[in-house]
Specification:
The protein has 455 residues and is α/β, with parallel strands linked by helices. The protein has 14 helices and 18 strands.
């Protein structure tokens, strides 16, 4: 579609005409994306292990999604916000039918930040209170209430946040200072201590906790077993709602249809985004009949231009259909076991890999300069990232100071075993050929090159 473009000219034009929004542009132009691959203007093929912005759950350009977009762009794209249409109603019906009881009513918006904004407002209206509690490595969006409950990045330089926000320590098993006498992670003491500080700081108007089941942007921090149940209990004791943000974990990514199901905890409010739209701007907020009824009676208002738009809703409906029909949740679980096993093997071979964590097809690889001290090594991470890119693999490396040097791996859950192996081989080659990776092996056994040879 974009053939014979001048990459050098386009990059110069990008720098002269595009506003910087907090990140540097990559040094190439992408002209095509298909399946699990993206392609540069020079024809280079890159394996996309970040699913775009952690969004293309069933791959770029999925033919059924393409057809759905075409049909609805031609016949039913956008409506007045007070109107409803078949795909919106059908998506709400399908979504609530596969969710547990207590998640009964949905509304559809455009971005994760927008759905979290709506969820926080809903919680304030329902409880009649205004204080919101978030985790230290959280990421919930760029809008006012969402970023007020976000501590990973984006708070400085804009003046005061919305009043009434409190922070809990992120449950990092790798880096937390809270330890049992045997050195194992004491998350319960850490959580209880965090709440004791929140209780002291609160003015008595605690409305909700908002949190992710895996703190992806905060470094792929995976909640320890029992943590979500304990958090729900803390909320219930204080008359608070629990909002779970599944922007990246929802719709099968972590080996469960929804990541909160892993512990059997049902949130009061659930938000979905990225994976639901497979790259199309679509998000959802889902809550209980009881909360919905009370908030309607109290005049809850979140009226936007693109609320319940038919075209993105049709895409969301198609994504659910494909995931359920093709049993992609099971696929994510089995492929995830293969991925994590291979990454742990990689960890045993290179001393710069301090930790491997995550669940399903969602993994974090933390790069350190010293395993004993756990000293972060962002410069080495940048070198490894550059080398992976050269070899044809895109694995997202955190660039913000709060979690530098952590690779986030989240390929489309349609990835084949061969494509997964290809990515692992490229990653191995990058570690093998990057100075400072601290090889731990002494064998000279060559690594498999079969899949890489087909690049």
């Amino acid at each position: 579609m974009y053939q014979n473009v001048d990459e050098k000219v386009l990059l110069a034009e990008a720098n002269s005409s595009l506003l910087n929004y907090g990140t540097s542009f990559m040094p190439y132009i992408i002209t095509r994306a298909k399946g699990v691959f993206i392609y540069t203007s020079s024809g280079k093929q890159i394996l996309d292990w970040t699913s775009g912005q952690m969004s293309c759950l069933i791959g770029h350009g999925h033919p059924e999604v393409v057809q759905t977009i075409h049909d609805h762009a031609e016949n039913l794209d956008h409506l007045f916000s007070g109107m409803v249409s078949p795909p919106v109603i059908q998506l709400a019906q399908k979504l609530t039918s596969i969710l547990p009881g207590g998640l009964d009513k949905a509304m559809f918006l455009s971005t994760g930040g927008e759905s979290n904004e709506a969820a926080i407002k809903l919680a304030k209206v329902y409880t009649g209170k205004f204080e919101i509690v978030g985790l230290g490595s959280s990421w919930h969006g760029m809008t006012g209430a969402a970023i007020g409950a976000q501590y990973h990045s984006g708070r400085s330089g804009y003046g005061p946040m919305i009043p009434g926000n409190h922070i809990l320590p992120s449950p990092s098993a790798y880096r937390s200072v809270f330890r049992h006498s045997d050195g194992s992670y004491d998350w319960q003491t850490e959580l209880d201590y965090g709440w004791s500080l929140v209780d002291r700081a609160s003015c008595g108007s605690l409305a909700a906790v908002i949190m992710e089941p895996i703190l992806s942007s905060g470094g792929m921090i995976t909640l320890p077993p029992g943590y979500l149940k304990a958090m729900k209990a803390h909320c219930e004791r204080r008359g608070m709602l629990l909002i779970i943000d599944e922007a990246q974990t929802g719709i099968g990514r972590c080996g469960d249809m929804f990541a909160f199901e892993h512990e059997g905890v049902v949130p009061d409010v659930l938000t979905l985004s990225k994976t639901l739209g497979n790259g199309i701007p679509l998000s959802a907020m889902i809550t209980s009949n009881a909360i919905a009824k009370t908030c309607q009676e109290r005049g809850f208002l979140f009226y936007t231009t693109h609320v319940n738009d038919p075209l993105p809703a049709a895409v969301g409906l198609k994504v659910l259909e494909v995931v359920l029909r093709d049993d992609l949740v099971s696929r994510s679980k089995s492929a995830g076991l293969r991925l994590h096993s291979a990454l742990r093997t990689l960890q045993s071979r290179y001393g710069c890999i301090g930790d491997v964590r995550g669940r399903g097809l969602m993994a974090g690889i933390e790069i350190v300069g010293d395993r004993r001290t756990k000293q972060p090594a962002p410069e080495l991470g940048n070198k490894l990232s550059k080398r992976m890119n050269e070899l044809g693999l895109l694995a997202n490396l955190a660039s913000t100071s709060s979690f530098e040097g952590i690779f986030r791996v989240a390929p489309p859950i349609t990835i084949t075993n061969e494509q997964l192996q290809l990515g692992l081989e490229i990653m191995e080659e990058a570690f093998k050929t990057t100075p400072g990776s601290q090889p731990l092996y002494t064998d000279k056994t060559p690594q498999p090159q079969k899949a890489m040879a087909r690049l």
